Amino acid sequence: MAGSPRVIVLGRMWAKDGAEHLPALRDLTARVCADLGIVFIDSLGWLSPRLIGPDGGHPIWLGHTVIAVRIARAIRGLQLGQTSARRRQNRYR
Fold it and tell me: Which end of the chain is more exposed for a tag (fewer CB within 10 A), N or C?
């Protein structure tokens, strides 16, 4: 598809350790993506603690399903023919 983004960056959605730094990491990643004209999907908060496995760092099977559905919705919601300036405004939560 002509004019479609070749790269879509998916932000962090969970952290076993250092979760307090995730909002700042998300904001930095979003700014860098915007500067480069790359689509950024903000996935912070997609997973609740009950969707994380006993290791504390990886989702259980239902968590993977939630991630897949949310990614599919976000990508379907992208207007791939729009300008990069408009893409910067479309950060999915």
Answer: N
Pairing of strands 8-10, 39-41: parallel
The CATH number, out of the four listed (3.40.50.300, 1.20.1250.20, 3.40.50.12700, 1.10.1040.10), of the domain defined by the range 8-89: 3.40.50.12700
pTM as predicted: 0.71
Return d(Cα 45, Cα 62) in angstroms, integer.
15
Positions in the chain short of pLDDT 50: 1, 85, 87, 92-93
Is residue 60 exposed (0-12), middle (13-18) or buried (19+ Cβ within 10 Å)? middle
